[in-house]
Design brief:
five-stranded antiparallel sheet, single chain, 241 residues, alpha/beta, five-stranded parallel sheet, elongated
Length: 241
């Protein structure tokens, strides 16, 4: 299920958009999303900032009394939130600003099904494809969506697993290595190396009996009896077998 947030200070407009989204669901029985409505941007930003709400798509009015929708989305981007944004407005005045905050679309009111529905078709298809490449992990008592491609490797240390990411950051997970292997099993690029490492083969720079060097410069030293199986998996992965 996807989460769609509506943010508009005009109650009547909120109800109109809600009805249109309900009609979209009725005509697309294989689609599943929940709609949450907000009458001001600050309430929406507060929930997202507290990591209590993770919308996949926001339909945001630009002209609101508490703050412009453009400014609200700038705050979201500063938080690191990259969810899709569709601006709703009666004016083209802020079209360039919408581009600068990477909005998915800029739509003029009044909304019409013939324009909104094809847009939802496209955005939901994109989100469905992207969701295949994310895992949900509990990190520091919050549930976070982590891009599979950003994971370089995982190292087990005692009862904890340490994930290392492409930007140089890391995080600690309170799960077993077996559980993490299970979570990443749908993604062919991950290979177990001994009992302590789980490696993303997309980030392997070179491999030998002595070491596996990642594209970040990190060197991993595999157990002697692990080299053959890791090498075979590596070659099979890149040969598409």
């Amino acid at each position: 299920m996807y989460l769609i947030a509506l943010c508009d200070d005009e109650t009547e407009q909120l109800h109109i958009t809600e009805r249109m989204l309900t009609e979209y669901l009725d005509s697309h029985p294989k689609t599943d999303f929940r709609v949450d409505s907000f009458e001001n941007a600050d309430a929406l930003l507060k929930l997202i900032g507290e990591e209590a709400y993770f919308p996949d798509l926001i339909l945001m009015d630009i002209y609101m009394p508490d703050k412009l929708g453009i400014e609200a989305v700038r705050e979201l981007r500063r938080m690191g939130n990259r969810c899709r944004i569709v601006f709703l407005t009666t004016s083209r005045q802020h079209a360039l600003d919408a581009f600068e905050v990477e909005a998915a679309q800029y739509m003029l009111k009044p909304l019409a099904e013939e324009k909104l529905f094809p847009l939802l078709d496209r955005l939901l298809a994109e989100m469905q494809e992207e969701r295949k490449r994310y895992v949900l992990l509990r990190i520091e008592n919050t549930v976070q969506r982590v891009a599979v491609d950003d994971i370089i490797y995982c190292e087990a240390q005692g009862k904890f697993q340490y994930l290392h990411f492409s930007d140089g950051s890391q995080c600690m997970l309170r799960v077993t290595m077996a559980k993490l292997v299970e979570m990443l099993d749908p993604y062919d690029e991950f290979v177990r190396v001994g009992v302590a490492f789980l490696i993303n083969m997309e980030h392997i720079e070179c491999i030998s009996k002595q070491e596996i060097r990642m594209d970040t410069g990190k060197k991993i030293y595999p157990p002697r009896n692990a080299y053959q199986s890791v090498r075979d998996r590596y070659f099979a992965y890149y040969c598409g077998e």
